[in-house]
Amino acid sequence: MAEMAREPVDPHAPPQLTFGRKLADGWNRFLDSDVFYSFKRSPLIIGAFVVTVILLLGAFLAPWVAPHDTMDLASLNLMDAFRPPVWEAGGDARFLLGTDDQGRDVLSGIMFGMQASLIIGFASVVLAAAFGTVLGLFSGYVGGRVDSVIMRIADIQLTFPAILIALLVDGIVGSVLPRQTAEELTYPVLIVAIASSLWVNFARTVRGSTLVEKSREYVQAAKVIGIHPVLIMVRHVLPNVMGPVLVIATLSLALAILTEATLSFLGVGIPSSEPSLGTLIRIGQEYLFSGEWWMTIFPGVALVVLVLAVNLLGDWLRDALNPKLR
Amino acid sequence: MSDSSQRPLLEVRDLRVEFPTRRGTLVAVDTISFDIHEGEVLGVVGESGAGKSLTGSAVIGLLEPPGRIAGGEIRLNGRRIDNLAYREMRRVRGREIGMVFQDPLTSLNPLYTVGRQLVETIQTHTDLSEEQARKRAIDLLAEVGIPAPERRVDQYPHQFSGGMRQRVVIALALCVNPKLVIADEPTTALDVSIQAQIIKLLKKLCSEHGAAVMLITHDMGVIAETADRVAVMYAGRIAEVGPVKDVVQNAKHPYTHGLMGSIPMIGHDTEKLTQIEGSMPRLTEIPSGCAFNPRCPHAFDRCRVERPELLRVEQSRVACWLFDQGARRAAE
Amino acid sequence: MFAFIIQRLFQAVLVMLVVAFVSFALFQFVGDPVNNMVGQDATEAQREALRERLGLNDPVPLQFLNFVTNAAQFEFGLSYRLGIPVEEIVAQRLPATIELVLVSAVIALLVGVPMGVYTGLNRHSPLSKVFLTVSLIGISLPTFLIGILLILVFGVWLAWLPTFGRSGTVDLGWWETSFLTVQGWRSLILPGITLALFQLTLIMRLVRAEMLEVLRTDYIKFARARGLSNRAINFGHALKNTLVPVITIIGLQIGSLLAFSIITETVFAWPGMGLLIIQAIQFADIPVMSSYLVLIALFFVLINLIVDLLYYVVDPRLRIERGGAH
Fold it and tell me: What residues of C are in contact with residue B101 (Cβ under 8 Å)?
């Protein structure tokens, strides 16, 4: 051991050092990059970023920071039902944005509901990105007839609106499964349904990049030296498509959140008994005519602000990563 | 060649083209001056990025924002055109200055017939009737060597081959007899086999129509065959300008010398084929003094500090301090 | 060109067959249709007779063939939920949806296309910036929220317009129309605007993007170099070239309108196909679901065919038989 330690070059130290330096370099490069520059220069984007972070924190820390636990039925008091927001006559300081028909705090409902919406949104985007990327790599790499069939399907699917695909997939899967199972699998079914409406854009982008890389010499060379070309390509294609995939993922997240809200609003997504932005709006809508507008408008505003902020970030990211547009 | 008493057709004085970027202003064309006389063919050569295309765009007033003319002036027949209002400049474009772009495949609108595009250009600048303009369009197509022009006039660009399309583009540039034609790499996108034809056609037609030509290219061979005078550009500046024979056969600026070395001349007693070390600097990294000094085999202290002006050497003007000394010594 | 149309027709038939297969599979997977048609106390013999009569004992390919034959005549059997033939329900619901979509399409196109052209041509004008900002909010506002907001403002607070159902219709025998009475038009206004708004902003943004793309091309630069007037360049050259992609967009958007009519109809209780499918999904009403699938696929296929044909009208590169050099 002692001899080892006396060795002039510790095999681990230098890489660690360079790794640390690399990280610092990377961070400095990021601070100096066009992306960060355009971020710094746009107050709108900074605003969108801050709003997104606040909403994410509010949603995921809901069990700790929400003023009330809307999931805890014991804490509900029907006497508190239909309270308007604080600033209206009859408002109660305990319920900042008023309460719903069961006496649940609207603000807390929004926080828990947004958590559900975000989980479904993120999960379906991750699923769609993974599936789309793999299929895109495969399609581009194999080429020929398989490729043209896959891309043809993608083209055809693109002509159908995402919401329709998600609705039909959700409806069909929901009908095919036995009722009991379907209720247990509400979330996974919804995630699969939304993901199935989102994968095409990922697949097309990754395929395009794969086709470019495939013709490069190093892929050919890899074959010669006996490394499996698929491995090489994954290593080279993935870094290249990171940017576009991130952009698509961001914009898809906004779309996924909207789709979830819409499906839940239509009563085919998350059941009304569980909070999500869509179900809150759906329940609130029934009380629109009797004047309890806050039950539907506040979750609606939360949804729009969230989607708008994510869309802004996605739009900005696309422009920042694509210098041609500037 | 041209009488010095006669005013040049085009005078460019101290032209500067800048691109504001977030890392400061890039000077893409740095204080250049040159003239083009009536009926003359001026070749502008240089590597890509030397600023030759931007110079052409600046002359016809089509710099793409954020690029802008930051200094100097451009005169056509003595009239300043670099500060004209859009409406007035529009009458200069096409009417007095025609332009031929690099890629004939993308220069024509795919959705309109060739005839329609000719007729609309003719009618924009003249009072000809639709029928007269059409007649003129057919004549022009015949003139640029398109067979069966009566039939071809009603065809769409995609029905023409690349070379044929460039002929149409030339017809469009010449259709109202401009005094000056700016040809920006007119053959680069074409098949090698038809490049010579197109160049020959351009030169012939321009001289028949009495138009001077500003021929922008990176191809010294084309210049040698076509131009009357040559301006060599390097990093946004003019390195050397003079009669084609002098520049090609007796290059003075070390950069021009290197550039000529890259085309072997048949029948010329060949010196060694020289090549210039290194590459042209990026606009963000132009060295002080002479822009060419880091690559120049003859560079001395002064070159690194002081930017050389264009100095008269025989028939040419050269931006190189080597010739300053020479001139002084000759005077002594 | 002929070959192209044949190819497209072939593809359309293929898509329809796939959709038909999905709807057919729905029947196969979900429960026993016999159970849905006979009472609880039917004997096994009665069931078997019905089974035989319905052709359920035939081999699966033959059953599929029968299904396709029936679907081609638009016969999908009885609705599980309503107990009347699906084609009757559809005949009753279809006019409501088609009229709604028509009104929205006209609004979206007449407003969206000019706004897109304007913002494309005048990139830096203040009005363009206003349009763009509003449109960003527009694409982040889900259709159902637009509907709810309009109901709240024009229905509840101002009480100007009807917010519920389809009234004032005139029965033409085979078609029930809203277009002939003031009341009919009034009840169309809010759902029509709701459905149009999202598509309008989308059309505007897409037309603008296409316009900017075309304005960057060489032939526009060359047109400027020829000294053509701004008018001739913008409206002669640029607009016509924008038209080609815009036709696709519009085709897709009309398809989207059909999909989003599901949401609008739910919000406004508009008795169209959308409301029908939502109820069908909630009740697992397979005959209605599969008829909707087939019908909507047919619409999309037709729209795409029409778009393809329109290309020929606009783009000479496709219209003219390959003459001269290519």
Answer: 218, 221-222, 225
Higher pLDDT, B270 or B79: B79
Inform me whether the pLDDT recorded for C153 exceeds 80: yes
Give C319 to chain B, closest Cα distance, Å.
11
Q: Where along chain C do the CATH 1.10.3720.10 domains lie?
A: 87-319
Give tens-digit pLDDT for C225-260: 988 888 888 888 888 888 877 887 778 778 888 888
Give chain C positions within 8 Å (CB) of B160: 324-325
C232-270 burial code (b ≥16 CB/10 A, e <16): bbbebbbbbbbbbbbbbbbbbbbbbbbbbbbbbbbbbeb
| Contact across the interface for C152 and A297, Cβ inside 8 Å | yes
Task: Give the residue on A whose Cα is nearest the Cα of C294.
Answer: A168
Using alpha carbons, list the distances in angstroms from residue B194 to B162, B189, B190, B198, B266: 9, 10, 7, 6, 21
Tokens of A74: 């014991």
A308: nearest CA partner in chain C: C140
The string of DSSP letters for C146-210 reads: HHHHHIIIIIIIS--S--SS--S-EE-SS-EESTTSHHHHHHHHHHHHHHHHHHHHHHHHHHHHH
Rounded CA gap, A96 and A87, in Å? 8
**Sites in chain A below the pLDDT cut of 70:** 1-23, 26-27, 29-34, 71-76, 91, 95, 322-326
Q: What is the pLDDT of residues C176-219, one digit of tens each?
A: 777 777 777 888 888 998 888 888 888 888 888 888 888 888 89
Phi/psi at B191 (nearest 5 deg)? -60, 140
pLDDT band at C54 (very low <50, low <70, confident <90, very high): low
Task: Find the closest chain B residue to C313 by CA distance.
Answer: B111
Partnered with residue B80 across adjacent β-strands are B75
Which of C123, C216, C219, C221 has the most B C-beta neighbours within 10 Å, making it the best mutation to test the interface with B? C219
Angle of helix C239-268 relative to helix C273-283, nearest 10 degrees?
50
Q: Which of C140, C156, C257 has the most A C-beta neighbours within 10 Å, making it the best mutation to test the interface with A?
A: C140
Distance, C-alpha C267 to centroid of its chain? 18
pLDDT of residue A3: 41
Q: Pick B5 or C128 by higher pLDDT.
A: C128
Across A1-15, A76-90, B89-103, B257-271, which has the greatest mean pLDDT? B89-103
- Looking at residue A124, its pLDDT comes to 94
Q: Closest Cα of chain A to C284: distance in Å?
A: 5
Cβ atoms of residues A163 and A259 within 8 Å: yes
Domain A129-326: give its CATH architecture: Orthogonal Bundle (1.10)
The shortest C-alpha distance from B273 to chain C (Å) reads: 38
What are the structural domains, with CATH classification, of chain B?
10-96+178-250 (3.40.50.300)
Contact flag C289-A296 (C-beta cutoff 8 Å): no
Bridge pairing between strands B237-243 and B68-76: unpaired
The per-residue DSSP string of B54-77 comes to: HHHHHHHT-PPTT-EEEEEEEEET
Residue B111 to residue C315, Cβ atoms within 8 A: yes
The residue with tokens 């060379």 is A221
C223–chain B nearest CA distance, Å: 8
Of B91, B93, B162, the CB nearest to C224: B93
Instruction: Give the one of C222, C236, C324 whose C-beta lies nearest to B101's C-beta.
Output: C222
Closest-CA distance of chain C to residue A107, Å: 18
- pLDDT at residue B174 greater than cutoff 80: yes
Residue whose entry in the numeric block shows the structure tokens 């009495």: B210
Domain spanning C87-319: which superfamily?
A: MetI-like (1.10.3720.10)
SS3 content of chain C, % helix, strand, coil (to 5): 75, 0, 20
pLDDT of B56 strictly over 70 = yes
